[in-house]
Amino acid sequence: MLLPSPSRAALRAARAALVGASCGVLALALPACGKNKKEATTAEASDADKVPGPDPGLCDLIGKRVALFDLNRDGAPDAWKVYTRGEEAETRVEFLSCKQVDFDHDGRKDYVVEFDAKGAKTFERFDFDFDGRFDAAFTFDEQSGMPAKVERDSDFDGRYDLVEAYDERGEIESVERDRNADGNADLWEQYIRGRLVAILYDDDYDEQVDRREEVEYRDDDVWPEDELPGDADADAGDDDDDDDGE
């Protein structure tokens, strides 16, 4: 006995019922079911915007790959590594070019370091008191990898007031200080081979040296023959005497 074939209207009704049931079962897994695609995409993008990312003002992120790390396992990233693509011996390579870390998990970066293609540090910044402002910045020499300049905010007011300069050996050469926080250096320390030899002062803060103090050393202190304290002044004095005799 042959059963009658279902009508087209009956097939359409069954198909509609099946689709409706599927949407009901998969509603949690498929947010687009029951709402349009645009609304679902907007919701997903909004959730992605809430994930903390690296600060583009602290290192170059254009065209770079970023890896996220959750140090305290609270579900939000607090360390970011930025990788740069390049070529070496006709081979494509990728190297770590920047790292940012939020140590106190407040959403602000407390440490930033940049690297060159060889993995050497080029720049480094620290926020020691976690107030959202960097308190020290290190610039490294490209050849030696040693610090070439260090800027410090000694009073934590958001402005660097102390600048240290280093030679290629990593020994300190000079220090500039801003004692009255006007943005200008008013005390200068001079060093030879890491030893302090003189301090210059701008006592009235007019950007002019008002006095100089020499640092005295014992006679048995050993100095390089070509870098004895006061040699520069002595040479200058000899030149003046020669000019007077002509």
Describe this structure in words.
With 246 residues, the protein is an alpha+beta fold. The chain has three domains: 19-50, no CATH class; 54-134, no CATH class; 160-246, no CATH class. It has three helices and twelve strands; from the N terminus they run ααββββββββββββα. Strands 1-2-3-4-5-6-7-8-9-10-11-12 form a twelve-stranded antiparallel beta sheet, with no helix packed on it. The longest helix has 18 residues, at 8-25. It is globular and about 60 Å long. Mean pLDDT is 81; it is low at 17-35, 40-45 and 232-241. Residues 211-246 are annotated as: Disordered. It comes from Haliangium ochraceum (strain DSM 14365 / JCM 11303 / SMP-2). Residues 216-246 have a biased composition (Acidic residues). Keywords: Signal.
SSE inventory with pairings:
Blueprint: H1 8-25, H2 37-49, E1 65-69, E2 79-88, E3 91-101, E4 111-115, E5 121-126, E6 136-140, E7 147-152, E8 162-166, E9 172-177, E10 187-192, E11 195-201, E12 211-214, H3 231-245
Antiparallel strand pairs: 1-2, 2-3, 3-4, 4-5, 5-6, 6-7, 7-8, 8-9, 9-10, 10-11, 11-12
Main β-sheet, in a few words? 12 strands, antiparallel
**Over all CA atoms, what is the radius of gyration?**
33 Å
Uncertain segments are 17-35, 40-45, 232-241
Oligomer: single chain
Question: What is the mean predicted local confidence, pLDDT?
Answer: 81
Range of strand content:
25-35%
Structural class: alpha+beta
- In whole angstroms, the N-to-C terminal distance is 138 Å
Number of helices: 3
Q: What is the chain-wise order of helices and strands?
A: HHEEEEEEEEEEEEH
General form? globular
How are the strands of the largest sheet arranged? 1-2-3-4-5-6-7-8-9-10-11-12
| DSSP E strands, number | 12
Biased composition (Acidic residues): 216-246
Organism: Haliangium ochraceum (strain DSM 14365 / JCM 11303 / SMP-2)
Protein name: Lipoprotein
Region (Disordered): 211-246
